[in-house]
Amino acid sequence: MPTESVLAQWFRRVWNENDATAIEELATPDVISHGLTGNINGREAWKQNFYQPMLASFPKTEVEVLDEVIAGDKIFARLSATLSVAGHEETVEMKGTCLVRLVEGRIAEAWDSWDFLGLMESLKYLPESSFQKALMGQLSPHPEAHSERRA
Questions:
Q1: Which of 17, 65, 107, 123 is the most exposed place for a label (fewest CB within 10 A)?
Q2: What is the model's pTM?
């Protein structure tokens, strides 16, 4: 049986098993996370600013590693996540990718890209096919969008 990569361990333990101790074991103290909610620096900041809020919104998360490529100190994975929505019986699915850089066998830096637009559409916060509708001129910008750009 092949050995499980650090990235596969991360998704299995941190998300699927909700094991916060794995964060300490698998990431460096000064880990940098890019792309989830901007840059997050450090394990503690990541726990407070992403992990805990995600668990509050999506208490049960199952991430499946679909494909993985390992090259030197980097691991890239294509992923699928099924999330339960807090206060609802429904689940939603989301696809994503993750690239990590390892230092001494631990995650030192991560770049995540997930289909949050699709997630917001699944949760009915946005209309279905909202990106396509915006491209076709069928979706109006939010009234505050233009005033925010000028600021």
A1: 17
A2: 0.84
